[in-house]
Design brief:
β1 and β2 form a beta hairpin. α2 runs antiparallel to α3 and α7 packs parallel to α9. This protein is extended. It has twelve helices and three strands. A three-stranded antiparallel sheet has the order 2-1-3, with no helix packed on it. Among the domains are: about 80 residues, Tetratricopeptide repeat domain (Serine Threonine Protein Phosphatase 5, Tetratricopeptide repeat, Alpha Horseshoe); about 40 residues, no CATH class. The protein is mainly alpha-helical.
């Protein structure tokens, strides 16, 4: 029933003011009845924003992040405050929350990303380097670090980070992917470790390469008179 109630409430998200208010009431009840139901918190903030109540929306999303710790709330907050032309309030939220929960790597990741958007490069790099130094190894982290160093003209470091993001090593390894379940592997294996299918691992991009091969224009003989026609073009 919770899913059905949510779907019904969301039908009013793109409606007029009356429908939006009805959706707000329904979503508030859902959040009250099921505090752990992530979509309820996200959509309640969305409807409040559409009703012209950005501060109420931000409060819902801030509380949602505090209780559920999901990155979608930070994405919503970033879009809200930047659209409102008020990045200072969001920066204050991040700085206060980081002091409160210094080990929250998700928070530091979004904090660092926001700083890069605002051209606060060194502060952004500091946050992202803390995340990387905690053992997080993801393409997103490396891409953001590469962007920050690139903007500071530290191209050698930026290139290293771009290589990490792309998984480029001195071997220039391409990697393999399962044709059946899309599981990736750095080395070829006789059997996919995820789905168990035999002989299903192929070089990444094989399908695209084979498709391009079949689509290549076929050679044909030049007919009488074509050579002369080309020579006049």
């Amino acid at each position: 029933m919770l899913s059905l109630r949510y779907e019904v409430a969301c039908q009013g998200l793109n409606g007029d003011e009356k429908e939006l208010k009805s959706a707000r009431t329904a979503l508030q009840e859902i959040v009250k009845d099921a505090p752990d139901f992530l979509p309820g918190h996200v959509s309640l903030g969305d409807v409040l924003r559409r009703l012209g109540a950005p501060l109420e929306a931000s409060s819902v999303w801030e509380e949602g992040y505090r209780s559920l710790g999901r990155g979608v709330f930070l994405e919503r907050l970033e879009a809200l405050f930047l659209d409102e032309g008020d990045p200072a309030t969001l920066l204050s939220f991040y700085r206060d929350f980081v002091r409160e929960k210094a080990n929250d790597l998700m928070l530091r990741f979004f904090y660092g990303k926001l700083c890069l958007r605002l051209e606060m490069i060194e502060e952004g790099l500091e946050q992202l380097q803390l995340v990387e130094g905690s053992g997080v190894d993801s393409p997103q982290i490396h891409l953001l670090l590469a962007e920050g160093h690139s903007r500071r003209g530290r191209l050698d470091i930026a290139i290293q980070q771009y290589k990490k993001a792309l998984g480029v090593t001195s071997r220039l390894s391409i990697g393999y992917v399962c044709d059946l379940c899309a599981e990736e592997s750095s080395e070829w294996q006789s059997r996919c470790p995820a789905c168990g299918e035999w002989a299903s691992l192929s070089v990444v991009g094989r399908q695209s390469l084979r498709g391009a091969m079949t689509a290549t224009t076929q050679l044909r003989p030049i007919h009488h008179g074509e050579r002369e026609t080309w020579g006049t073009v």
